[in-house]
Amino acid sequence: DIRAGEDRAPWILDRDAAVLALLYGAGLRISEALSILRKDAPVGERTVLTVTGKGGKMRQVPVIPRVQAAIDAYLRSCPWTLALDEPLFRGAKGGPLSPRIIQLAMERLRGALGLPDTATPHALRHSFATHILGRGGDLRTIQELLGHASLSTTQIYTEVEAARLVASVRSSHPRARPAA
Q1: Annotated catalytic residue 54
Q2: Which is the catalytic residue, given 15, 29, 90, 126?
Q3: Is 131 a catalytic residue?
């Protein structure tokens, strides 16, 4: 377990895992994840989350079972009473969780895993989109899932995918090697 030996309470580790799972598993921004109210927590039968994104634009995002399990683990271990109309994620003293705490958690993970400085909470959102595209998801669906107003914003991910495809062809195709 990458978290073994950390000098933080188990419920805080569960909380951080749940937030990071939402960023990667549902493509949320930190602000979107931290604005989820307890009553809207995607657990049990609730497999779709309604998110308010930039500009107050609302969208629905499916929540995969692994993300639900991470949130459920956090809810079971959280020592605070979570009122239904209050934020789901809490800081160590019981108040609303600060985005900076999640950024610091990601920094610790980066160090433990030897990841580059580009591995940030927002990079998890980019990974979500890139992985969906790489598995055959279409740009319009990804645009909707991410809450992008413009398709041109979403098209950034096609550049990443195109670069990966070019590299794959160059390394794999028998005629892609330079003539000797």
Answers
A1: yes
A2: 29
A3: no
